[in-house]
């Protein structure tokens, strides 16, 4: 027997990156992503119009297909990534380059698409930013989709049911499609933890290990393999004792899921009876089943960007109302905070503006007050539905920083309410108005804003980056992005004090609410309303129901006294 044959029969353990937790055992299917073939052939001048038309038709078909896939998935992060891919296809600069290659250089449409994308990919390849390099697969995915569309060909991935996919690379949309074919787990040569493929796999609950470098050379279709997404380990052709070890781990995994359900069935209160609410952060209609699955008590943050990003416009009132009503039917009698459209100028397909720092720029209510029709369309859609669900809907204003902005929002709500009433359309005239506390100016002057609104929703993600002057997307200073920094806690505490004094509600909808110990501290500070990704609810609830309210208050008092993030993290570790 040759050394190669001997190696192919032995148990092999391969270490990679744990992209998505869980353990899967099964048979491998080695999958090779097929790329379309194009040739740099030229066309005559009389053919340019037909090739331009083929490009426009292909673009429309690609966008339509991406929108269809988005609607078919229930995962929030997946749909957000697919929305980004729609933006890539809709990029006017990219279209201009493709059209120029057809009209000016007389390339056929397939090669024009390939050439334009190749230039874009080369720029990313030269960049030292690993996050940008991880996005290359997204660009290649859109390139291949467009080329296939202009060639009028399809190349849908296909695998046997209940198999473990082993591949050198996979596109985000391929992950969605393979998941629908009952892919048990994903093992991939390429990819980092921040790649969109990894993010989607994690969000969809597909056990995954990536960054394995040469796994496709060591595994063949039909091999028995074990994927440990907790440790980032892949075991090929496991021995009996290894198989038994992982079967035991699988049983433990199932036991934890059963325990999770027991936790969800418990009342939302501390051991001494102090009640709290755990709500969901949602954006897409397909996510609504998660409300019942994780027993969320309403929606603390309903993102509405998808109403725009999926089609480049806010849409007519009927489309908006249909979305809002589907949400309200699902929540029953619970409350829903509908955040107004929150995106910067870089999210507009037809907007040429490019900002050096969009996080500090034209976004949220700043953009909406400049784009009044967009604001009025959305307010009218929300107000129309509010008449059918009085007292259950709140309007949440993002990126508010000044009192003048609040004045303008109130004027628009009043004007639209009067307009609808004049047409005998039922409206909740006392609809609750809230503001996102994410800009320090609002937190610092919370006592001025509190009498003007019905509730505060503290967005700790942005509040942290603005308080500490840290771009949360900049890896060079990622260690300074500290949501548990004492300065952030001070602003949270100040906001709670103002809300209590003026008897308005206050909640937290940022990522800090999904941290079980931070959530315990927030409740101890006096916030009984937390909103988070639905899947985070069990762990947060488990942390809260095991303690008395006094214990949570003691933790909050310790955090108030802390002078550094290191000190707070030490407290959290000891409390855990």
Descriptive labels:
single chain; 576 residues; alpha/beta; Glucose Oxidase, domain 1; Enzyme I, Chain A, domain 2; TIM Barrel; 4 domains; eight-stranded mixed β-sheet; 49% helix
Protein architecture, described:
The longest helix has 26 residues, at 240-265. This protein is α/β, with parallel strands linked by helices and 576 residues long. The protein is globular, with a radius of gyration of 26 Å. The chain folds into 4 domains: 3-32 and 158-258, Glucose Oxidase, domain 1, CATH 3.50.30; 46-150, Enzyme I, Chain A, domain 2; 266-275 and 438-525 and 535-576, TIM Barrel (Alpha-Beta Barrel); 298-433, TIM Barrel, CATH 3.20.20. It contains 25 helices and 16 strands.
- Runs with pLDDT <50, length 5+? 345-352
Query: How many structural domains can be distinguished in the coordinates?
Result: 4
User: How many β-strands, per DSSP?
Assistant: 16
* Number of continuous helical runs: 25
Q: Could you give the distance between the termini?
A: 54 Å
Mean pLDDT: 86
The CATH superfamily name of the largest domain is Phosphoenolpyruvate-binding domains
Which CATH class of the largest domain? Answer: Alpha Beta
**Rg:** 26 Å
**Protein structure class:** alpha/beta
CATH domain topology of the largest domain: TIM Barrel
Largest sheet: 8 strands, mixed
Characterize the overall form: globular
Task: Please identify, by name, the CATH architecture of the largest domain.
Answer: Alpha-Beta Barrel
Helix amount, in percent?
Answer: 40-55%
Spatial order of the strands forming the largest sheet: 1-8-7-3-4-5-6-2
């Amino acid at each position: 027997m040759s050394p190669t044959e001997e190696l192919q029969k032995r148990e092999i353990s391969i270490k990679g990156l744990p992209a998505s937790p869980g353990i899967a055992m099964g048979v491998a299917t080695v999958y090779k992503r097929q790329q379309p073939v194009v040739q740099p052939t030229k066309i005559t001048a009389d053919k340019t119009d037909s090739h331009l038309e083929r490009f426009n038709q292909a673009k429309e078909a690609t966008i339509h297909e991406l929108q269809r896939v988005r609607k078919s998935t229930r995962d929030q992060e997946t749909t957000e990534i697919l929305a980004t891919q729609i933006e890539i296809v809709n990029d006017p600069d990219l279209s201009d380059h493709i059209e120029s290659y057809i009209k000016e250089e007389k390339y056929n449409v397939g090669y024009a698409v390939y050439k334009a994308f190749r230039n874009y990919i080369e720029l990313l390849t030269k960049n030292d930013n690993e996050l940008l390099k991880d996005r290359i697969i997204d660009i290649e995915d859109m390139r291949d989709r467009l080329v296939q569309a202009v060639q009028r060909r399809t190349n849908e991935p296909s695998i046997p049911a209940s198999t473990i996919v082993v591949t050198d690379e996979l596109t985000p949309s391929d992950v969605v499609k393979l998941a629908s074919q009952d892919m048990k787990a994903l093992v991939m040569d390429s990819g980092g933890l921040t790649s969109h493929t990894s993010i989607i796999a994690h969000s969809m609950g597909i056990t995954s290990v990536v960054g394995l470098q040469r796994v496709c050379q060591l595994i063949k279709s039909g091999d028995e393999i074990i994927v440990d997404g907790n440790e980032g380990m892949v075991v090929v052709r496991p021995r009996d004792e290894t198989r038994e070890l992982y079967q035991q781990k699988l049983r433990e995994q199932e036991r934890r899921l059963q325990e999770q359900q027991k936790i969800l069935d418990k009342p939302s209160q501390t051991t001494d009876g102090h009640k709290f609410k755990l709500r969901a952060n949602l954006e897409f209609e397909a996510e609504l089943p998660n409300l019942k699955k994780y027993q969320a008590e309403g929606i603390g943050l309903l993102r509405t960007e998808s109403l725009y990003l999926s089609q480049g416009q806010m849409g007519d009132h009927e489309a908006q109302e249909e979305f809002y009503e589907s949400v309200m039917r699902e929540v029953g009698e619970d409350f829903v905070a509908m955040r107004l459209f929150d995106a910067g100028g870089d999210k507009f397909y037809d907007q040429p503006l490019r900002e050096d720092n969009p996080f500090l720029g034209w976004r949220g209510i700043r953009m909406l007050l400049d784009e009044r029709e967009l604001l009025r369309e959305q307010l009218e859609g929300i107000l129309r539905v509010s008449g059918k669900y009085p007292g259950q809907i709140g309007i949440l204003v993002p990126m508010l920083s000044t009192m003048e902005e609040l004045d303008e929002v109130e004027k628009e709500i009043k004007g639209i309410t009067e307009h609808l009433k004049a047409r005998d359309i039922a409206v909740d005239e006392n609809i609750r108005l809230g503001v996102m506390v994410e800009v320090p100016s609002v937190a610092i002057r919370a006592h001025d804003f509190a009498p003007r609104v019905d509730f505060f929703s503290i967005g700790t993600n942005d509040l942290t980056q603005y308080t500490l002057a840290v771009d949360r997307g900049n890896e060079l200073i990622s260690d300074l992005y500290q949501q548990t920094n004492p300065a952030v806690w001070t602003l949270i505490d100040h906001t709670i004090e103002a809300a209590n004094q003026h008897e308005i509600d206050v909640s937290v909808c940022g990522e800090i609410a999904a941290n079980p110990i931070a959530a315990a501290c927030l409740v101890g500070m006096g916030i009984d309303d937390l909103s988070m990704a639905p899947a985070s609810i069990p762990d947060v609830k488990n942390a809260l129901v095991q303690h008395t309210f006094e214990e949570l208050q003691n933790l909050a008092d310790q955090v108030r006294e802390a002078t550094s993030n290191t000190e707070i993290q030490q407290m959290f570790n000891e409390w855990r």
